[in-house]
Amino acid sequence: MAVAVPSRQLFINGEWKEPVKGKRLPVINPATEETIGEIPAATAEDIELAVDAARRALTRNRGKDWSRASGAFRAKYLRAIASKIVERKTLLAKLEALDCGKPLDEAAWDIDDVAACFEYYADLGEALDQKQKAPVSLPMQTFKSHVLKEPLGVVGLITPWNYPLLMATWKVAPALAAGCTAVLKPSELASVTCLELADICKEIGLPSGVLNIVTGLGPEAGAPLASHPLVDKIAFTGSTATGKAIMTAAAQMVKPVSLELGGKSPIIVFEDVDIDKAAEWTMFGVFWTNGQICSATSRLLVQESIANEFVEKLVNWTKSIKISDPLEEGCRLGPVVSEGQYLKMLKFISTAKSDGATILCGGGRPQHLSKGFFVEPTIIGDVDTSMQIWREEVFGPVLCMKTFKTEEEAIELANDTRYGLAGAVLSKDPELRERVTKHLQAGIVWVNCSQPCFCQAPWGGTKRSGFGRELGEWGLDNYLSVKQVTEYISDDPWGWYPSPSKL
Ligand code: NAI
Ligand code: MG
Fold first, then answer.
1. What share of the chain is helix, strand, coil (3-state, %, to 5)?
2. pTM passes above 0.85
């Protein structure tokens, strides 16, 4: 059934609001190149209103405000959001597929994860009521100390287009559970489902101003949010270049940031693997969500002794992937998100060719699709470590590969990157897997798989992939500050300055 993109406004202080300057941006279906709707485009004036609403919601009514309410009070709203997400799953999944081009089956999976993530942080937020005050043991009997975990305040959440609603949820759910209020700025390339989240917040009666959702361009809406003096923290997922700009803006106010940036993650396939299983995980690692994943394992390292057999299987299997409109039954690869990304993919591939690499499969637009931003799943061999295709994040369905002889060489090649988000090691030998895991410079290591992600486990990188961890308890800590409370409990005076009466 066809779905229409609902027409929405900015969501500020619990109300729909036309952007102050009245600007709007088109919603383009990347599979057809057609404009299928519009989103509002905020500017600094709207960000001002949204931050003001979030500030007021933080401490509006003594005792009943968001930041000082109990975790159990806030959890009720998160659970109500989760159940509305489940109720609207079919629509949300279709909108996600239309807006960012991911296959409908993947979009449906994302929406399940969104609901699960709201539920999970409802539980963690509720548990915070017991953990909010934690004793600290001191070496002196005359003092007693404890820590209070408190919400950081108003947080700015800036998110990308590859998992539009899920990346927003990874930030919104823990932020709200912790007692923060928020301004969410989704990517201009895929904001539709985040505006549906706004509709859900309105429907369940989330107290006004607790979550404000302002769509718009990065420089016009994202930048004023990042540099706003009344925003207490910025959480960002996106490119390393934008991450640097956000960090620079935040530095002016010594504002904490958490950054989840790009990657160029390795997948290491040792000679003892089951070739079929390893080939499928290698494909999933880079073709799922069209390779538009920060953690994509886009550099394949395969042991020389099995390389021919492995690559032949991988290439043949890759050629059979169903590429189609994301809404078509059985689609496993849709278009990339935008014309800009499409042209960027083709440029990466042509540079690899002119650098002397070999295209083993794919390399261009699929012949059966004349419209849409489709790029074939592509595997590139004869790659040298100095080439752009080895060094830079492509963020598309492009895998480059090299062979290795020894474990040491594999580790050296795997760590030969300025990024450090993820890595995968595939082998039947548990000791080898453990050794390699310890040596990989990465925030996430997958063993005998690539990409599965659970909201209970920490997510984030090292090196230029950023810092801070999302998900799990670490995700909640992202939005909490720790206050030390120390009490003098002795009946005796402190006695440092001799009392004048005794002099
Ligand atoms: P981007 O990093 O520019 O956009 C991400 C978010 O930041 C969007 O909401 C955008 O509006 C906002 N933004 C942009 N400039 C800003 C600024 N000056 N201040 C505050 N917010 C700003 O990513 P873009 O341009 O959409 O994609 C370009 C490349 O970035 C991709 O090809 C990929 O390599 C990488 N990327 C990585 C992602 C990841 O998950 N790590 C996600 C999206 C993109
Ligand atoms: Mg779009």
1. 40, 20, 40
2. yes
